[in-house]
Amino acid sequence: MSPQRGPAERAPPRSASHRIAGDCADVIALICIHLPLRPAAANQRAPLTCCGRTRARPGAGPRPPGGAAAARGGGGGAAMACGGFACSKNCLCALNLLYTLVSLLLIGIAAWGIGFGLISSFRVVGVVIAVGVFLFFIALVGLIGAVKHHQVLLFFYMIILLLVFIVQFSVSCACLALNEEQQSELLEVGWSNTNSARTDIERNLNCCGFRVFYQNETCAADCLRTLHCRPCAPIMEEYSGMVLRFVGGIGLFFSFTEILGVWLTYRYRNQKDPRANPSAFI
């Protein structure tokens, strides 16, 4: 039997390496307690284990009621953000409603002009009404395609709108690029080719003749009674520049809305309707 140690006898002191190892173990255990580790699986709500110690996950506990619904609601809000399916659909519908109002305005102006006798040329009225009906047809196709997310209608709407943009942009730039000499030549050609438009101009502007007034020519202006009539060319040239700038500016504005409509249609056509049947083709 080994001799028993006396009360005065104690264990030998630990070496420096033993003390350092013990301190390191305490530090590692402390780090493991406060380290935010993840569980093994993404959907697993298991407690965290580190260095043989188990602790509860921070914030873990019974999920509040309506958490899944709140998550789904957040996803719905993201879907409603601008650039999503609903935003593209609403923008395209609003743009086509604008085109519908413009087309009805054109048809109404033509009917008002011929009804009050401001325009006697049926050719001019026919052109304005034809443009209004064509624009109304395009807007109707785009509106139906946007509401139903119809791939074929959206494709034809995009192609027609692109062609209209090319023509309208070219005409608008030509109107803005005409100088005074070209405007005078254009007015003279129009004066010589249309008798009904000539009558309207003489009656509304109270002038007779284009460059020179001849007393023996027929004129619809009231100034013919006094035989003191101005020629129509200076009056028309005074307003032609302003009219061409106005028409060119309006045409450029609507041409940019048309290219915006082409881009919106292309984007909306390639987006997936979250409520649609994935097996449906159209």
Brief write-up:
64% of the residues lie in helices and 2% in strands. The chain is mostly helical and 282 residues long. The longest helix is centred in the last third of the chain and has 38 residues, at 232-269.
Characterization of this structure:
This protein is mainly alpha-helical. It has a domain at 86-269. Helix content is 64%, strand content 2%. The protein has eight helices and two strands; from the N terminus they run αββααααααα. The protein has helices at residues 16-34, 67-79, 85-115, 122-148, 151-177, 180-193, 195-205, 232-269, and strands at 48-50, 53-55. The chain has a two-stranded antiparallel sheet with strand order 1-2. A hairpin with a 2-residue loop joins β1 and β2. The longest helix has 38 residues, at 232-269. Mean pLDDT is 74; it is low at 37-44 and 63-81. The chain crosses the membrane at residues 97-119, 125-147, 154-179, 246-266. It comes from Taeniopygia guttata. It is a multi-pass membrane protein.
